[in-house]
Specification:
Largest sheet: 10 strands, mixed
Helix content: 25-40%
CATH topology: Spore Coat Polysaccharide Biosynthesis Protein SpsA, Chain A
CATH class: Alpha Beta
Number of domains: 1
Strand content: 15-25%
Order of helices and strands: EHEHEHEEHEEHEHHEHHHE
Number of helices: 10
Structural class: alpha/beta
Distance between the termini: 29 Å
Oligomer: single chain
Shape: globular
Radius of gyration: 18 Å
Amino acid sequence: MARKVAVLIAAHDAEATLRLAVESVLAGSMPCRVFVVDDASRIPVSQVLGTYGGRVEIIRLDQNRGPAAARNVGLARILAQGFDYVAIQDADDMSYADRLAAQVEALEAAPELGAVGSWTRHFDERTGATTLYRKRPTDPAAVSRMMFFNIGLSHASTMFRADALRAVGVYDETYAAAEDYELLRRIGTRYALGNVPQFLVAYRVSSQGQSLGRRRRQLFDRLRVQLKYFAPLAWRAYAGVLQTLIAFAIPTGLIGALKRRWLALRGHGYTLDGQRLTAHPAK
């Protein structure tokens, strides 16, 4: 029986990149239906995209509600229609042709998995140059250990098992800057989590970087999630909370440099590269 795959995109004023994001999944090797939630964009998504032969469904919100609320509107539609899998596609990223097929294959092969991500390739939005390749752990046990410290899957590359969302619920909108981390921690209480060891998503890096206020809100919400799912008998639970508390006092630039150095030493795959966007790493 053919598996039904939905791709969910929350879009707000993303007219410059949205078409590429949508077309990257429609051009893939696995059939899918794309649900775009237009979070009150100044230029309606319907004017940006058109119809795509009925393969794209656009849901427009009257007021800007933020990514978590927008995705929840889309998930309500998707889950009601009986899809088997839900892939997240950010409005400014691109998926490779075999992304959906590779992730469905991984979920089909391991029923204990509630969600899978993939390795990601990051590129500069101004130049298109690849800036780094990010490899996250693929073994569910290693992903579980990583989740004590931060999100173990790139949310932008995640595919959820729809039944897992039906079982645990959707995004908690009270975690405005860490709703993805909270949802995956919640799924992780009942399912395993993993990553496909392939570079399946091209992640656009903003030239403006992250504001101090946004970073502090992310750290605060991350800490809330860590405390919500705190495991008293796991030393990593204490280490993760301590790491987040220390991060509040460290400048953003230094955090990034330390993270890249640490992951490189641990073999988690921060590899600098100056090749053009179309250069695809060996799988």
